[in-house]
Amino acid sequence: MSMDLEELALKAAASEARRQDAVLRYEALLDRTDIRLFAEELQQELRERCVLFGERLVCPFLRPCFITREQFDLLDRAVAGVVGAMLALVPTILASPELQAFLGLTEGERRLLEIDPGYSEISVSSRLDSFLSGGTCRFLEYNAECPAGIGYGDIMLKTFLDSRVMRCFLKDHSVRAPFCSERLLQALLESYRLWGGQDEPVLAVIDYDGLPTRHEFGILQRFFQSRGVRTLVADPRKLEYRGGFLRHEGQPIHLVYRRLLTNEYLERDQECRPVFQAYRDRRVCLVNSFRSKLLHKKAIFALLTDPGYRHLFSTSQQQAVQAHVPWTRRVQDCRTTGPEDEPIGLLDFVRRHREDMVLKPNDLYGGEGIRVGWERTDQEWDADIQQAVLGDLLVQQRVGIVRESYPIWDGRQMTRQEYTVDMDPFVFAGRAEGMMTRLASSSLCNVTAGGGVVPCFILD
After folding, report:
1. Report field, pTM of the whole predicted structure over 0.85
2. What are the backbone dihedrals phi and psi of residue 157, each rounded to the nearest 5 degrees, phi first?
């Protein structure tokens, strides 16, 4: 690592004691309050503000996550280096049908890839999924298409800030609440201007009706409208392309905030054809564009950690990848390089190192299809490998997960339980702007799979 990155890691590690002291201070305040009254007030406020996944409360927890300023600085530097390295790969991928095939891009995805979105940013709004512990940060996946959580996160930050325990905590601690909705809106409008938009746009948040994340669409709609941007939420199947405009119930749409995944769109491409037509004809600005799929495929991590592509990265990007990205390969019966750049036979290596490996699908979400080696028997792992060879899967080296105790209210009482803690920074213009912190009782942190979320404050 460079001295800058190494110094950031050392400072972040040294600040861990201060973070733990803050957690203990908050927990002590929690123990001295009327816990039932506090919990019921907090949860009622979150429900009224629609922090819901379907009808399930996203945050049943009574304590937020804290990280120090030094830890956030490390996270930000790591994001800049790793996302910068991904972007450095893009020209080579666009020029190489072989690399596009390696990434697992389908024919439909490649067809969408050819369309110029009207602005250069590959992923305007994205999110990296990571584990942050002391002075160590490791990224596992990159959600470059349409990351959820910004609306939920800002409401949780506001709700906890207004709570009685947090008000007491702030008498002795200074914190920063890293709100992201304003930055998201700024990024959307910047993309619209670069695309060629001159008038004030009508913005549409598009995804299918009836999804459990529909509450967040409403949160963002209300925020955007509070900033003077006319906003609607629409199912892409209910849009029409007429008179040179993408329309919803006759209303022209100029800017789309896409929350619909590309593969979900392609599954119903005929029903959603007006979106494609308006995008193809440059009659609507789509953010993120369909080109974000290039970086969304998890196989991008296999290119990042392949020594054959290091020459494309700057020195700082190489150092960031080495420090923060676990060794990753597409599962194939082939010769390749191992975690120390040593020559290996991939399948034999993965079979022998079961307790240090995870198998994951290249393009699924919600924890679907993941096989954790240290939770499988030798026989199960061998069968997993054989299936992986036939499918579109990756193998990734195990990283140290973060486990921490959090207080939770179940409607009757408070208990403290240990959870896996996933730190997921939101990324704009290659920098971390805020975080979503996911908690789960298992090794896999995912709201779709039943996990929860807490807001994350930065200790200054």
Report:
1. yes
2. -60, -45
